[in-house]
Amino acid sequence: MGKNCRKDKAIPPPQLPPEVREEEIEFSDEDVKYVEENKDYARFVSRIDTTAINRQCVGEAKTVEDKYEEERSKKKVQQEEKESNEIQVDPVDVLPVKTLDGKLHFRTVTKKSKLAEADPEEAEEDVLEDEHILNKSQRRAKAKKSKKEAKKQETEVPEEIIQEEETPQAAVLAEVKEELSAEESFENKKNRLAELGMLLLSDPEANIRSLKEMLDISKDENAKIVKLCLLSVLAVFKDIIPGYRIRLPTDKELEMKVSKEVKKTRFYESTLLKAYKSYLQKLMAFERQSVYNQVANRCICTLLDAKPHFNFRDNLLTAVVRNISSPDEVVRRLCCSTIRSLFSNEGKHGGELTVQAVRLIADQVKSQNCQLHPNSIEVFMSIRFDEDIGKRDREEANKKKFKKNDKRNNQEEQNQAQENERKKSKREMMSKIRDEVNADYRGVTFEPDAMERRKMQTETLSAVFETYFRILRKTMFSVGESSTEEDTTLNPGAFGPHPLLAPCLDGLGKFTQQLDLDYIGDLMNYLKKLASSSSVSTTKKKNSKLLTVSERLRCCLVAFKVMRSNLNALNVDLQDFFVQLYNLLLEYRPGRDSGEVLAESLKIMLCDDRHQDMQKAAAFVKRLATFALCFGCAESMSALVTLKNLLQRNVKCRNLLENDAGGGSVSGSIAKYQPYATDPNLSGAFASVLWELNLLTKHYHPAISTMAGTISNMNTSQNQTFLSAVTPQQAFADYSLLKESFEPKSESRKLNNKRKRESGGEGEDVPETDMVELKKKLKENFTILRGIKVDERVRMEFEKKKQSNMAKKKPTKKQSNVEKKKPKSPKSKKKF
């Protein structure tokens, strides 16, 4: 029995190794050499029957117990089929048989198929099928019948579906199914994006091919899914992109034999670069669509800000500069903030992107004819220019030279040749190592040499000043043409007639130290002409091309800043700019013009200017006093601060505080004050008195009233050298409407003596009034007054009618006496 059991047991076939693609199989050089040397021993491999091995190894080995269970299950299935074919006979027709257990057993009859009832030939065929005895002709007939039945089912099913859809309930159900399917698909795609993103972040080298699947989801018709896809791919790229630029291998490099790791890195970098390129192309396409404009620009700006060193940065920069003057405020702010971060963080890209960005902006200003948003030029204010480029390197080189010379002299004196050679070798080795380390550090940090940095800085400066002078020239041309009789050639753009002038002047005021002295003379002439252009046109039509008051004040500020930065090298008279400031104080309007610019001009031109003429200072004191009466708290406070500063510096101007006729003891060259004079030296301010301070002491704001009181109480003989610490700019900012928290106090009225007596005491409080009783009393008084007025109106009408009737009839003596007595009737009506 033991031997038989062992024979019955089947030995399972060995398991095959896992399948490997032919492309992935790699042979070493040693294996190839061994096979070539021993070809005779490898002939048996060609004779192996692989089909037989596959047949044997595919299926699993079956034991005797498994075979027994299969036979048993087959018998059970056959019995169940027989029982299903039998039908119980109706108990009415045939009586049942009762067993010993007491159960009723009905007789059964075998089933007959419907085909057998219809056609006996088909029944015979079914019997043959059950018995598994089908001929070729029978099989063909069966196949034909099955095909016909399938065709009939295909034609019948659509009719039923159409009938169901025709009903209104079916249409509603279809809509609900579509909505549910759309929600499910949205959730599925959303979850799929999250899964792919997590896989890429966990192991990017192994799952780099899933980037293509993520990008394919962006082709969906649903806008929400597209936006989610773009933002998720952006987050993945921000984390995956390496800290260096990818360079694809050349054809020669691809032909060379490399290791597996090199092939793996090449494949990873190539797939990453292709996916990144396709992603950027999709962003550029979505940027033109209004639905995805903001999302696409956000992705472009974040990529350029986070990875400015990576490939295709030029394309990103052009897209950002193109939208720097976009009408959409969100897109414009994103682009401007991105370019500001590029200018401030030059260590990420080595300063190359600053040069490119400035050139692109200059080209855009030129192509758009200076009709851009002011933010496109305000970006230049965040550029940093280093004047000490390469200074440290020069100092270190000079120190090394001096040390070497000193050491050589000492070595010659000591005559130690061997030790010197050893020291030289050590120093040379240390210097080489330092140079290598510095070169590697520069390559990693993208920091160029001092010469390259200086070259890039000069290029950026030239581009910046080129744009600034182009804007000045354009404004000069427009103002010159606007002064003519008819100006129909130029039309103001969407951002105003001169949108870039204010940021241009601010930039010139900041970068005047880097400007060459040869160009400063031309710049001052331009500023004089622009400041002297009146904002009020002489013709009847209003001219929008002329400069505003704030723009003209900016021109004066830039001129003073240029003079301060180049004080020793220039000799220019600034009297024209003082004249313009004196006239602009009358043209200023708080809602139209900028008060901050006015406060800055007062500080720089009047407070910070040490050398001032007495007549000019007196004229400005008088003009500022009148200016403080006409405008709000912020403007009047800045004017009073400037006035106080001028009086503290110029002692003779304090004679304007005296009440004597003719402005005090000092008599000017002009005997009468001329308030509308254009030149401050010809106004004759010493012939007047600062009577405005008396009115300002009664101002509703306590700060202004106290400031006016302190100025009016200044002594003429005392030399007060202590200046006020508050500047006009600070005063304007503190008392502006945005920061002002002043609330005038309501003075409590004093009670009369009668009310105090009625209340019963002087210290008692006034009782609160009851609003309900007050309303009742007011209603009663109103009805009484209304009745009196109605009574008077009716009385007047009655008297007029009476007089008209009496004129027709001649009055008798009795009637005349009665009429004389009638005027006493109103006294009786007064009681009513």
From TrEMBL:
Membrane-traversing stretches: none
Entry-linked Pfam families: CBF, NOC3p
SUPFAM superfamilies reported for this sequence: ARM repeat (SSF48371)
GO cellular component annotations of the record: nucleolus; nucleoplasm
Listed Basic residues bias regions: 137-150, 821-832
BP GO terms, sorted: DNA replication initiation
Keyword Nucleus: yes
Localization (cell): Nucleus, Nucleolus
Biased composition (Acidic residues): 118-129, 156-167
Alphabetized UniProt keyword annotations: Coiled coil, Nucleus
Family affiliation: Belongs to the CBF/MAK21 family.
Protein's name in the database: Nucleolar complex protein 3 homolog
Species of origin: Brassica oleracea var. oleracea
